[in-house]
Amino acid sequence: MNFQSLEKIENADAYLDMAFKEAKKPIEKKIGGDKLAKIKYMEIEKVNKFHNQLASQLHKILRNFPNIDDLPTFYIELIKTTLDYVKLKKSLGTLSWSLNKINDLKYNVTKGLKKAPRIEILVKERKAFHGRASSFMKQSDSSLRYLEEARKVMKSFPNIKTSLKTVCICGFPNIGKTTLLTKLTSANPEINTYAFTTKKLNLGYFNSDYEKVQVIDTPGTLNRFNKMNQIEKQAYLAVRYCADLIVYIFDLTEPYSLEEQKRLYEVLKGYEKKIIFYLSKTDILDKEKSGKEKLNMFKKENNFKFITDSEKLKEEIVRRLKE
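Above: the chain sequence. Below: its structure as C-alpha cells.
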C-alpha cells in the first residue's frame, strides 16, 4: 500500500476561489437567439463551471483516499495508532455529503434556470446557487483541514506489500539487523554504528524459486508498546499483522545482555509466529579465543538451531515459508 500519491488538500476558501475564478472565465461559444436566451445560456454555463470545479476537487480527494475499512489490518491498526480513526472516517463522509448536496443543488438550479421567464430571475438564482454551494463547502472546511493533517501523517507510512510473504528481522538495536537486511536483499539503507539508527521500517525483497519475499528491518525492541515512538509502533504492527516468519538476532558481543535478549525473544514467542535464530557478528567472536568459547558455550546452553551465514539463512527462510 502506497500513500505517497495522496495530494495536498486545500481548505474550503481555496476551493471556492478556484470555482469563482473558473465561473468568471469568458464563454467562447457564440450564442444565438434573443437576449433572454443568450443570458440564460451564460448563467447556466457559470453554474456548470462553478459546480464542475468544486465537484472535481471533492471527487479527487475521495478517489485518492483509500476506503479505510477495506485496508489490510496492518494499515487499519496503524491509522488507529497515529490518527483519530473515527474523525478520519467522519471527515471523508462529510466530503461525500457535500459532493452529493452540491450535485443535487446544481441539478435543481439548472432545471429552474432553463424555465426562468426573466433576466433578473436568472441572475438571482445563479447567485443563490453560489451562496448555497459555498455554504456546503464551508461546512466541510474542518473536514478538509483534518484530511490534510491525516494526509501528511499517512504519507510517512511504509509501503508494505501485504500480499507478499513477509519476514521481519527482530532484535535489539545495533546488533546487525540492517546489515543482515542488506545481505538478504538488494536494499541499501543507512547503517551507522550507534544505537537506534533505524529511523523507519527498512524494506527489501528477494526472489525465491516460487515467489517474491518481503523482508522488513524493524527498529526498537517491540516490548513496551505504551512507550514506543511512532516508528517502533509501526514495527510492532508489522510483526503482529504482516510477518509470516521472524528472524530473531542474537548478538554475543553483548551491546545488550544475553538475558535481555532472551527476554525479548520470550515476548516475540507470544506472537505465535515461526522464528529462525541468527547469530550476528560471529566474525568478531572468531578472532579471539574467549569469543569462540562464548559462542560454543551459548550454543551448548541453548536448545536453538542457530544460523550464522546469510545465504544459509535465506535458504532456511524459503524452506520455512513453504511449510
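The first strand starts at residue 165 and ends at 170.
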